[in-house]
Amino acid sequence: MIYPIVMYGDPVLKKVAVEIEEGEMDVKQLAEDMFETMYQASGIGLAAPQIGKSIRMFIVDGSPIEEEGMEDFKKVFINPEIVWEEGEKWAFEEGCLSIPGVREDVMRQPKLCINYLDTDFVEHEEEFDGMKARIIQHEFDHIDGVLFTDYLSPFKKRILKGKLSNISKGKCDADYKIKAPKK
Predict the structure, then answer these.
(1) Known catalytic residues?
(2) Distance between CA atoms of residues 129 and 141, nearest Å
(3) CB 113 within 8 A of CB 76
(4) Which phi and psi angles does 107 have, rounded to 5°?
(5) Range of 51's domain?
(6) pTM recorded for the entire structure
(7) Given a cut of 90, is residue 68 above it in pLDDT?
(8) What CATH number is associated with residue 144?
């Protein structure tokens, strides 16, 4: 099932999502649906709040990125917690399926360790670096109610104000199914 992507301005994107209890829902089916939704929108990551579900779950698939090691970077993260982040922050231009047409540099640390559950509720703790870490940090932010635009300077935010306002009204170009914000 392909879900519509929730657009910037919807309150669900600014909420801290709740943990998922084992057996509470079919996380395997939800993960499949999220991957289908993400692929249809040509994304590399998708968090549950982006499909209107305020739960601590996100998916990633770095295979579209032509970089060594990304071809097999496909994972589901349930109830994740970042254990640590380290290294000198580096800038990279990020975008977001919930904020179509907006891309800006965001500073993030290059390494992290994350604890999470998979779709069988088996616990994992793994370290990631580079683009893998960045994708995880971006999606993790979503389940904490943080958007990449929250990292921008007041000046950048003023420049983007009109574009963000239009997105929040559903006035944007996206070649995937979108859902304008509920006010």
Answers:
(1) 139
(2) 17
(3) no
(4) -90, 130
(5) 5-179
(6) 0.95
(7) no
(8) 3.90.45.10
What pLDDT, in 10s, does the model give residues 5-52? 999 999 999 999 999 999 999 999 999 999 999 999 999 999 999 999
Single out the residue of 76, 114, 100 nearest to residue 148, CA to CA: 100
At 36, which amino acid appears? E
Number of domains the chain contains: 1
Segment 127-179, tens digit of pLDDT? 999 999 999 999 999 999 999 999 999 999 999 999 999 999 989 989 999 99
Three-class secondary structure assignment of the chain = CCCCEECCCCHHHHCCCECCCCCCCCHHHHHHHHHHHHHHCCCCEEEHHHHCCCECEEEEECCCCCCCCCCCCEEEEEEEEEEEEECCCEEEEECCCCCCCCCEEEEECCEEEEEEECCCCCEEEEEEEHHHHHHHHHHHHHHCCCCHHHHCCHHHHHHHHHHHHHHHCCCCCCCCCEECCCC
For residue 108, give both structure tokens.
Answer: 């993030």
Find, among 143, 164, 22, the residue nearest to 81 by Cα.
Answer: 143
How many C-beta atoms surround the C-beta of residue 69 within 10 A? 13
Q: Tokens at residue 59, please? A: 């998916």
Closest C-alpha to 70, from 139, 134, 148: 134
